[in-house]
Amino acid sequence: MMTYQIEPIGIIHSPYSEKFAVPRQPNLVSAGQGELHLLPPYNDPNSVKGLEQFSHLWIVFLFHQIDPKKWRLTVRPPRLGGNKKSGVFATRSPFRPNHIGLSAVKLHNIVVENKQVILKLGSLDLVDGTPVIDIKPYLPYCDSHPDASAGYAQYIPESTLTVEFSPHLLPLLSLYQKQYPQLSELITQVIAQDPRPAYKQTNLEQQTYGITLYHLNIKWQITNQLATVIDIHESKIKKRG
Fold this sequence. Notes:
single chain; mainly beta; six-stranded antiparallel beta barrel; globular
């Protein structure tokens, strides 16, 4: 069997410091935007010449936080409640033979800072540090199929949780938003999508969970369908960049 060696052409910078916080698809969390920093020798403005004419991109990437040995012929998609199995190639599970992912994202801008080419992206579903192996322009005339059917994931999932912040956190949240202006929207949108495993979403008892966004640890409690953010504090490990 032939094998191929693939080198990344860029690295993603996003608010998501861990897999648990990442939306299951792009465009589900509008406040969760990011950047793609090209690596040498591709961080040359010539490599993206003309790309500014396109509003959206296909990002081809690697699920780098998944053990390469952990792939499965069948998986349990969250949209099926985590109980029904589907073939891995009938899902977007990261537990794939080659751990390659594909996301369509909005391109806001292309900037060059200190000889570094940076693509400013819209809502994305990629953990911070994700290696990108290719970029392709999104072509509406052939990439968009409004009449396509999608089996178990035809429509965008509804937000399942109502999110509120404990009153004592509001001054602290206001302080952090000087650095991250969309922080409250980001926290709300990420938690509202209910990142818990499907088998835990039916548990009606009070549960406490935590995620890391940027360099902040966020803790919340869930009672029925209400999620209350109860703590925000800085992580000991600072986010890169």
